[in-house]
């Protein structure tokens, strides 16, 4: 018996066993993953780790009562005991029929494994020595840039592979497999007053060939560390804000909470009654796309095993969809969309943010966040920031110890331009965004 | 119930000296300063109520062993969830690779078992509490929340508990074990006043058994959740800019956790990447300020009988009367600095490597009455409840998010405020602590500290404290 059949057989067997114990509906998942991490500092490997993991998760409906369970103890006799306890525990609850499995017609695969292209075919041939050499070359690239103010630099390489097997009692049975690689460095520099500012550059990809060169990563890590030297706050006030592409997810992300079915159902969403209404300027378009080949957030099916498909969440400022999983859709008496956020794509504009910055006497480029949070019910947010104060596009000061604050229902109306530099190295694929008239607090 | 024997517990999974010794032999085949096998069996249960129904249960089991080989400051690490000899030996051989070029000797095996105090005795294991016994508690909390105020519209409740058996077998012959219980209760409610909605929640956490939920605690759990939601109805936007800040007694310890706690974790210091790197023995705050990281508070969420390297734990003074006193050490950093470990080596689970971490971090009480501290502020803010924080270790900048507080105007608490991030620089803020209150409270909430992708349970506490200046990120 090969490994593939073992996994599908284990999941199918768990479904059958749970049904025999009295469950009417069962969804079982077997997730196997492995990963390797190498950390280098001071010319040697500081940490080498290897992980292999196998986990069984399942959800059950017993007389319309719902429960979920997971275990890493996969000895057959342990699984039997685990399932018997799981079914018995479920019987003690109250019925929650909205938890039933979805209509099988909606379930399945939205994109083929081939089209998702998330398993690098060369992954299996990548040897321990190959990994060691890449990690070492990352460290050597940082060393080649060494200057008097370098205190410490650490380089990281990791990769991994995950295999998902899903079987349900209403006929779903499928598998998906992907690999990933990550490479980057952090650098700590000496600064005035005992400060030791740090900067980093990290990349994650599905295919190794898509990694940037170690020189490009090292240049960015050094540049981002230098940007943080001599930082401090500037005057409180309202400034145009350039939100750097690689950190745009932090501000876009405040939409996530209030768009979710659970927030809407529990009365904790400021976007519950905004479908079809303008929530931002006409420049704001946001697409959820699980089908992007090699995308870090791409997936064939969502958490309910519904076929994953491309969805426009905000179209030219107008809210098009909530994130409704099967359970909360039923609770709200609506049709499900999906409960799973995948890749978020903001289509790029035509001008560079640098050109846009030249046209503003003063602006703030936000390059990082520190702490902060958002209230999904009111939309209020407040985040600590790091960044650069610009005058006519030229850097005049490195910024820290400052906050940016506002409200979700207001900030996106201030979106004044979308840059031409989409960031494709994360599940949030946004260009640099320009917001006018944003409240910053500093001195 | 006394501490159960973890060695006996793991016998049911086939873990004995016949499994352990060959695996440790493989782990140290190229030499090592230290190596260990960390066995863990964790079971957890969570029961939840929403929409007026106890309608969800989740159970989880984690079983496995992590193998670590240490050579100087180099670490090789692997884990397996399969406790067969073949799988454990393979993980040991993988972890051993780090030592291939080291030329180190093998640690001498001197078989010894350490005893330890028990900071979290329980009368009954959580696994022996039938799931049905949790249901009436959850029901009662829901009813109390609805009864507390007619504006309460929705209530969610959960009761989560679990226990972890730990067995540590080290290449130097030491065997150590621990039984670690944990429970967390959470009540959240949404209130509706003429169409304006707000929500509030409260949670209690402890290393304890079911007897933790005394009538007093149950009442507070519900009342605080409702009270927070109702208070939010009256709150408005916070101010912006640099202001004096008074931190309320209790969970304000989040300021210490971010402003100094992380920066005192010795891994950052031995690498020279912490802003506190060159400040040991120097004055960093006024003489009123003593900051403790303590593993020994009975029943506290952050307490530990032994750390995850099998070392005894302690009460560590990070700052003693204003002077920087000790880092938080695991064995690697203790060896680097030539000091004893502080029992701060922690890991999220057998799947994660060991790092120096905080346990329960708090400031000792000072001389001032809380009312006098508030009265001393002409124009500032008072911070009462918090959700999250973060620090940038090298630059020292840190932030924490205030869910709820008040304006202070002419020495009095006035308008309620909410949802505002505060930001400052660790050493500057410590130096700006002007008054320390006489009312230390170690918060009873379920805080989790994140570092390098690992979350570990912690506690935090604070007396009422006045900070001369912090940057307040409101919109006004």
Describe what this molecule looks like in 3D.
The complex is a heterodimer of chains A (443) and B (476). Chain A has a domain at 237-441. Helix content of chain A is 22%, strand content 36%. Chain A has helices at 3-20, 76-90, 113-116, 128-143, 214-227, 249-252, 256-259, 261-265, 326-332, 353-358, 408-411; strands at 25-41, 44-62, 65-71, 150-168, 173-189, 198-205, 237-243, 286-288, 311-315, 318-319, 344-345, 362-374, 380-391, 394-407, 415-418, 428-429, 433-441. In chain A, the strands form three sheets. A six-stranded antiparallel sheet of chain A has the order 3-2-1-4-5-6. Chain A has a five-stranded mixed beta barrel with strand order 7-12-13-14-17. In chain A, strands 10-9-8-11-16 form a five-stranded mixed sheet, with no helix packed on it. Chain A is globular. Chain B has 476 residues and is of the alpha+beta class. Chain B folds into two domains: 6-234, 2-Layer Sandwich (PmbA/TldD fold), CATH 3.30.2290; 240-473, no CATH class. Chain B contains ten helices and 22 strands. Chain B has helices at 6-11, 17-27, 85-96, 135-148, 215-234, 254-261, 266-270, 331-337, 370-375, 426-431; strands spanning 34-50, 53-71, 74-80, 112-113, 152-170, 174-193, 196-206, 240-247, 291-294, 315-320, 323-324, 345-346, 355-356, 360-363, 379-391, 397-409, 412-425, 433-436, 441-442, 447-451, 454-462, 465-473. In chain B, the strands form four sheets. In chain B, strands 1, 2, 3, 4, 5, 6 and 7 form a seven-stranded mixed sheet that branches. In chain B, strands 9, 10, 11, 14, 19, 20 and 21 form a seven-stranded mixed sheet that branches. In chain B, a hairpin with a 2-residue loop joins strand 10 (315-320) and strand 11. The radius of gyration of chain B is 24 Å and the shape is globular. The interface between A and B is large, with 79 and 87 residues. Strand 2 (44-62) of chain A pairs parallel with strand 3 (74-80) of chain B.
